[in-house]
Each structure stands twice: as structure tokens, then as C-alpha cells.
Amino acid sequence: MGKNFKSLVIGFVLLSLMLFPFFGERFYIQFASKILVMIIFVSSLNLLVGFTGLVSLGHAAFFGFAGYVLAILMQVDSSTHFVTALLISISCVGLLGLVFGVLVLRTKGIFFIMSTLALGEMLFYFLHDTDFAGGSDGIYIYSRPNLSIFDFWDVDLANAVHFYYVALVFVCLTLIFIGRIIQSPFGRVISGIRVNEHRTKALGYNTYKFKLVCFVIASMIAAVSGFLAAVQFGVVNPEMVGWHVSGHALMMVILGGKGAILGPVLGTTTLMITEEIFQMLTKHWQLLTGLVIVLVALFFPNGLAGIRIFKKGGSM
Fold it and tell me: Is-above-0.90 flag for pTM?
């Protein structure tokens, strides 16, 4: 009965999301798309923090770098296909993730956190201080990649409704992909690393290689969200790789529930909607948002996914 109820709830939510553009205004459709894109990014960070135990404050480097790859690519060839541009962005970010991973995964604990922060800030100032990357103003993307489905339906990525459905598809694919990873033998190893790395190593696993692979996978998932964000807003700037973006995403991971697949969905949606409401009510909205986060941390130490109604679905 519980499993059937969970399937019914998931089906109802998906149906509601699919019908939302038919009833929502343009502003709310764009805001919902922003939430969807952020869910992908937070899910990639959750793969590191929640499932592997690697707390990164430089994860936004992969988010922003993917957007820059797209912006530069569209300047070179404005007719680039969506899939081609996406694969190039993911590949470039994957390479960056490999370099970063090799450098930081030799460290542990607070030293790992500070190393990721340092590398992220290095990339920030590189993009901020070079004319090639547009400096502090960034780069405008005047034309979006071309996307056609089965050669008969051209998707206009500048259209809010079209982009919403594209983002929704990628959120579903991301959650399914991460779920498969966690349920695989690879996922069991990285979960073991989170619980007790020394014991996992004693069982014969090369924990450094497993962490490195997970780090690269997480960076490539973050690249998808950064790519979509650049497509949605038509501009990239150094702020996209700033440490505050990583910190904001980390709050969403904690709010939703570390190590829960649905945690990023709950945490991202709750925090972004809460911030939007408080911004309309008062200029001191950050104080109220902080209060909400503190209350959730006090009364729901396992995050929103730890609430009984979400527990089964969140830890699937």
C-alpha cells in the first residue's frame, strides 16, 4: 500500500508540473524553470555531500564554467545544436572536475573544504580579470543552441514554456541517473566511504579512485545545470562561480536532507519559494530566511526528507 501511495503521489506531482504552464503566468513559469535548473545543481552537490561525505565550497566552479563554455561556443558558431553544445560543455567541465579532483582529494576534512573554496575562487578571479571571458560583465548569449525533436518540432529555448519542459525533462533524468548510481555497487562503495573510509579501504577498495570518479560525475551533472542556466538567462558572469552560489546550494542540501534523492527537490523548492515570498514582504528577507533554516535544523535534523510523509520517497 505504501509503495502504491508513493507512486500515486509522484504521478500526481509530475502531472501537475506538466500542466503548470497552461495555468501559470510567464513570471511563475520562469521562476519554476529557475527552481528546476537549481534542483539539478543541488542534486549534483548532494551526490558529494550527502552520499560520499565530501563537503565542497567550490562546486559552483563547474556550474559557472559550463555556462562560459556555452557562451564562447555560441560566439564561434551560433548555429550549434543543443546536444552538441551540451556534450562539449559537459566534457570540458568533466576535465576541469578531474583536474580539481586530483588536486583536492588528497586532503580531508576542513582542508578539503578550503581547497575546493580556493580553487573555486581562483577560477572566479580568472574569469573576472580576463577580457577573454568578458571581465566582470561576463558574456551575453544572443542566440540559443538549436534544438529540434525528431526533425519536425523546433524547440525555441528563448520561449519560457519550451524551456520549462526541457528543464523538467533534465530534472527527471538527473534524479533517475543519481538513483541508479546510488543503487549500484559503485554507490554502495561511496556510501561506505562516507560512513567509514578506513574500513572501506581495508576491504580492498581504492577509495581515492572512487572519490575521484564521484567528484567528476558530480561536476558533470553540475555542468548540465550551468548550461541550462546560461540558456535561460542568456548571459554568464563571474558571479556564477562564486563561493556564495556553492554555499547557497549547500544550505538547500541540508534543508532538504543529506543523502536523500528527493532532498534537493524539497530543499531547493522550499528555500527558493520562501526567499521569494520574504523578498515581497520585507527588505530584511534574509533574516527571516535564516530563521526558517535554523528552525528546520532544530526540529528536523534530517532535513525535510526526514519528515515521515517524505521519508520513504526521499531515501529511495
Answer: yes
Q: Which residues are within 8 A (CB) of 195 and not within 5 positions of it... i.e. 6 or more apart? A: 53
Q: Is position 302 within any domain?
A: no
Domain-located, residue 165? yes
Whether 13 is in a domain gets the answer no
Domain range enclosing 137 = 24-243
Cα distance between residue 160 and residue 146, in whole Å: 15
Dump strand ranges (E) for 239-304.
none
Residue 301 is assigned to a structural domain of this protein: no
Could you list the pLDDT tens digit for every one of the 316 residues in the chain?
Answer: 456 666 777 788 888 888 888 888 888 999 999 999 999 999 999 999 999 999 999 999 999 999 999 999 988 877 788 999 999 999 999 999 999 999 999 998 899 999 999 999 999 999 998 888 888 888 998 888 888 776 667 778 888 999 999 999 999 999 999 999 999 999 999 999 999 889 999 988 999 999 999 999 999 999 999 999 999 999 999 999 989 999 999 999 999 888 889 889 999 999 999 999 998 888 888 888 888 888 888 888 888 887 765 554 444 4
Backbone angles phi, psi at 81, to 5 degrees: -75, 150
- The count of domains in the chain is 1
Crossing angle of the two packed helices 109-128 and 60-76, in degrees rounded to 10: 30
